[in-house]
Design brief:
The chain has about 425 residues and is an alpha/beta fold. It is about 45% helix and about 15% strand. The chain is globular and about 55 Å long. The structure holds glutamic acid.
Length: about 425
């Protein structure tokens, strides 16, 4: 067992492996299961030369990790970020396995990442990078192998370029190669807002258990990107009071509630809002302000041993991947704060991605109402299963989510004779 102070130093992959080992032990699976699942089955590193607008060439490094394909093809987004690392991509692919497991989707987890800063690149450079990445990984991906999607700083336009490139390589139209596409290219109604819709669904369940309603609740949302901004929009409509929002540069806080329609209208495409007001506070200060629900919807390692004792929320819903450290999780749980872990709270995106893939395969498209109803049914069941597992085994919600999320994969590996 690693000492508490040490776990704070672990990287996201090591943290994931630690919780995974505990989860598999609790379910009495053998050591061989952990050995198989602790790392992705397949990892490809690529170096992508891109002609920049000024005529020079920049070589970008990227990865695609496929955690485990016992259940079905692997699935998960592609992240464009200057700080993305191979450990992070591996951990993210494992988390995708758990999201798919909790939602009972016929997939294993996958993830891609490219070290780049899209905020400093032109549309032309981004297009050449996106197409170059697809050429580099084309042999290991495909509608029945591994299906990418958007993630941090990638969007429907990037998915469209990638789908077009893949279709050229395969010489036929392949909409099911990638999800999160624009509607006219086979995207699904409701995909764009699906992560936030999922967060709203599990948040309502968590608030109900904690004895209050989302309507009238004071909410702080860290991050105003795809998940954070749609979430602010939905919660504002539901009658919640959004008292804090932030971006990478600063945070806005008003105990009486922020003007959400104004911020939604004026934010830029990367979710920047801190330039719209004068007296910003820091992200760190905002996280510790009083609220009923705190939603980290930005990056990893935000709730730690250092600030978890000072968080004033009743419920924390992790819309980002990996926002809370293990020690942070322990402290929040001990303080009686109900924590809805990332692999459950942010599963709405991949669930509707699955619907998009099904619609592409069928060539038959659903209404937004159908998408929403199916999403709600899946996530409500997933929430109940994680909560019941936590109660039954007297664990925190994260360990319970790992247990419930890995079960199907372990069974599939067992039937296939891999363990
Ligand atoms: N990138 C999203 C996630 O982390 C969505 C993945 C997908 O739609 O496949 O869950």
């Amino acid at each position: 067992m690693i000492a508490a102070a040490k776990t704070e130093q672990l990287n996201v992959l090591e943290r994931t492996q630690l919780v995974m080992e505990q989860a598999l032990n609790k379910m009495s699976y053998g050591k061989d299961v952990y050995e198989l699942l602790k790392e992705p089955q397949r990892l490809l590193t690529v170096r992508i030369p891109v002609r920049m607008d000024d005529g020079t060439t920049t070589v970008f490094t990227g990865w695609r990790a496929q955690h485990n394909d016992a259940v079905g093809p692997t699935k998960g987004g592609i992240r464009f970020h200057p700080d993305v690392t191979v450990e992070e991509v591996k951990a993210l692919s494992i988390w995708m396995s758990m999201k798919c497991g909790l939602a009972n989707l016929p997939y294993g987890g996958g993830k891609g990442g490219i070290q780049c800063d899209p905020r400093a690149m032109s549309m032309g450079e981004l297009e050449r990078l996106s197409r170059g990445y697809v050429r580099a990984i084309s042999q290991i991906v495909g509608p029945t192998k591994d299906i990418p999607a958007p993630d941090v700083y990638t969007n429907a336009q990037i998915m469209a370029w990638m789908m077009d490139e893949y279709s050229h390589i395969r010489e036929f139209d392949s909409p099911g190669f990638i999800t999160g596409k624009p509607l006219v290219l086979g995207g699904s109604l409701g995909r764009d807002s699906s992560t936030a819709k999922g967060v709203t669904i599990v948040m309502k369940e968590a608030a109900r258990l904690a004895g209050f309603s989302v309507q009238g609740a004071r909410v702080i949302i860290q991050g105003f990107g795809n998940a954070g901004s749609y979430l602010a929009q939905f919660l504002h409509k539901e009658g919640a009071i959004i008292v804090g929002v932030s971006d990478a540069y600063g945070a806005l806080y008003d105990p009486d509630g922020l003007d959400i329609p104004y911020l939604l209208d004026r934010r830029d495409s990367f979710g920047t809002v801190s330039n719209l007001v004068e007296n910003c506070i820091t992200n760190e200060e905002m996280l510790q302000k009083p609220c009923d629900i705190l939603v980290p919807a930005a990056i990893s390692n935000q709730l730690t041993a250092a600030n978890a004792p000072h968080i004033q929320a009743k419920v924390v819903v992790e819309a980002a991947n990996g926002p809370t450290t293990l020690e942070g999780t322990k402290i929040l749980t001990e303080r009686g704060i109900l924590l809805v872990p990332d692999v459950l709270a942010s599963a709405g995106g991949v669930i509707v991605s699955y619907f998009e893939w099904v619609q592409n395969n069928q060539g038959y498209y659903w209404t937004e109402q159908e998408v929403d109803e199916k999403l709600e049914a899946i996530l409500t069941a997933a929430f109940t299963s994680v909560y019941n597992t936590a109660q039954q085994h007297e664990t925190d919600m994260r360990l319970a989510a790992y247990m419930a999320g890995l079960k199907k994969m372990v069974e599939a590996c067992t039937y296939r004779g891999w363990v």
